[in-house]
Design goal:
Among the domains are: about 35-120, Alpha-Beta Plaits; about 125-140 and about 180-245, Alpha-Beta Plaits. About 30% of the residues lie in helices and about 10% in strands. It has helices at about 1-25, 50-55, 60-65, 100-105, 145-155, 160-170, 180-185, 220, 240-245; strands at about 70-75, 85, 125-130, 195-200, 205-210, 230-235. A hairpin with a 5-residue loop joins strand 4 and strand 5. Helix 5 (about 145-155) packs antiparallel against helix 6. The longest helix is centred in the first third of the chain and has 24 residues, at about 1-25.
Length: about 250
């Protein structure tokens, strides 16, 4: 079944490339709306989306220096902005490296070099999207097999490094315990400024987001529910999102 699914994805990808080539050869003009990039979680330091797309030269330097293998390049199957870097927090979030190497590696200014430390990062904002499924709120222990699930990403990486091994070791300590993963795994130097567990009306705890959140997606990646209860809204500030809720 896995082979069939892979073959189907490859067929769709290359069929689409062929159709695109024919369309361009035939002089078909795509509308600006069709070519508009999706709202993706970009690497640290990413400038305004339109400017980012104009500046990014799709060199992949940011991907190559990321020690957590967090950064991917968009292909035809994934949508628009082909070749531009993005982060899928469902698979591997940004872990806010102290030197922000992806920014240092960017030669074009698509990643702003004024972003020099984790506190300078502004990728988005975390939101408790599905509180009804949050294990902390329902007082449900982190399920057995959680570490195995998280290890699948490491298993897919050929050049695994110590930082990733250490991260997996941290995950193994939570199985069967009260879930505080989103708060505990926040990678910024002062995580309490971004997220904390607070008492909930039903007797459990709930994650509360503060304006120090940088939108790295670590909370989304480590959330043990099948569909993450907490997610990151890309390119949205704390003020923009939470002010609208008051």
């Amino acid at each position: 079944m896995a082979t069939v699914q892979t073959d189907r994805r490859e067929f769709v990808k290359y069929s689409t490339l062929g159709i695109l080539g024919l369309a361009l050869g035939g002089g078909i003009i795509f509308s600006p709306y069709t070519l508009r990039a999706e709202n993706r979680l970009r690497p640290p330091g990413a400038v305004d989306e339109k400017k980012f797309l104009a500046l990014c030269i799709k060199c992949g330097q940011c991907l190559q220096v990321c020690p957590y293998h967090s950064i991917k390049l968009t292909d035809m199957v994934k949508g628009h902005g082909i070749g531009t870097p993005y982060i899928d927090a469902n698979e591997r979030a940004c872990y806010a490296c102290s030197a922000v190497p992806c920014v240092l590696a960017c030669p074009s200014g698509a990643l702003d070099h004024h972003c020099e430390k984790p506190e300078d990062i502004h990728m988005g904002i975390a939101v408790l999207e599905f509180p009804d499924t949050c294990l902390a709120i329902t007082n449900t222990p982190v399920p057995a097999g959680y570490t195995d699930r998280m290890s699948k990403f490491n298993d897919s990486v050929t050049n695994l490094n110590k930082l990733e091994v250490d991260l997996l070791e941290k995950f193994s300590k939570y199985e069967g315990k009260q879930c505080t993963l989103c708060a505990d795994m926040c990678p910024i130097p002062n995580p309490i400024s971004a997220i904390a567990m607070v008492a909930n009306e039903g007797g459990g705890n709930r994650p509360e987001i503060y304006d120090g959140c940088i939108g790295c997606g670590a909370c989304q990646e480590v959330c043990p529910t099948k569909v993450p209860s907490i997610v990151v809204k890309p390119r949205v500030t704390y003020k923009e999102y939470y002010a609208s809720k008051n």
